[in-house]
Design a protein that fits this description.
Blueprint: E1 2-7, H1 15-29, E2 33-38, H2 53-56, H3 64-72, E3 77-83, H4 91-103, E4 113-119, H5 124-137, E5 150-152, H6 156-159, H7 163-170, E6 189-193, H8 200-213, E7 225-228, E8 232-236
Amino acid sequence: MKVLLVNGSSRKNGCTGTALKEIERSLKEEGVDTQIHFIGNQALPDCIACRKCRELGKCIFDDQVNEFTQQAKQCDGFVFGSPVYFAHPSARLLTFMDRAFYSNGGAFAFKPAAAVLSARRAGTTASFDVINKYFTICSMPVVSSTYWNHIYGQQPEEAAEDKEGLMTMYTLSLQGRRSEGIKYASCCVALIPCTPGTCRFCALYLAQILCLLTLETSNGENFFIFKADEEGVLGVR
């Protein structure tokens, strides 16, 4: 299992980086392979609504967004982190996510994801909602922790003193709750077809229900990931 963590701050080792490193530490202790993708502080083009991605299968701007979406196809979960600017996630992260999710939404569909925010004082809940919108439009399970996924501090040293925030990051695991021990198995493939009595949306809903029903709290050997196509929902366990 591999999780991609995205640092949407202009500072690689700022407060957002502090939060992501704590999550990474927790995931590694669970045996999860991780990678932190730092968006950087160079200019990043916005989506220009040219829709060329529908023809090319990637964004027309051939930069780190396309590299990221290719990596995303091979990953099992995501964490998107951002500082709070004027009660909103960084414009840099939103530009990145706009282009990534619009050009290659299928790379994220039905894979768990978490939003993480860092702030000096306020604006985290509004920013949290904005990032989560990307997940819920792609049928991605939204991962929560023991509190909202926020950490507080203006400088990384201050964020490192936010013990409750760090604990919230540490207990945020993309394998689900540790008490359930949810892990991926690789033993079967199930197809839920769209029949006259089962439209595509019903099939998606049924797939999500089956996903919940296959979570085992004892040894966590059953967990379905579902992919949708025009004929139905393909669930790979």
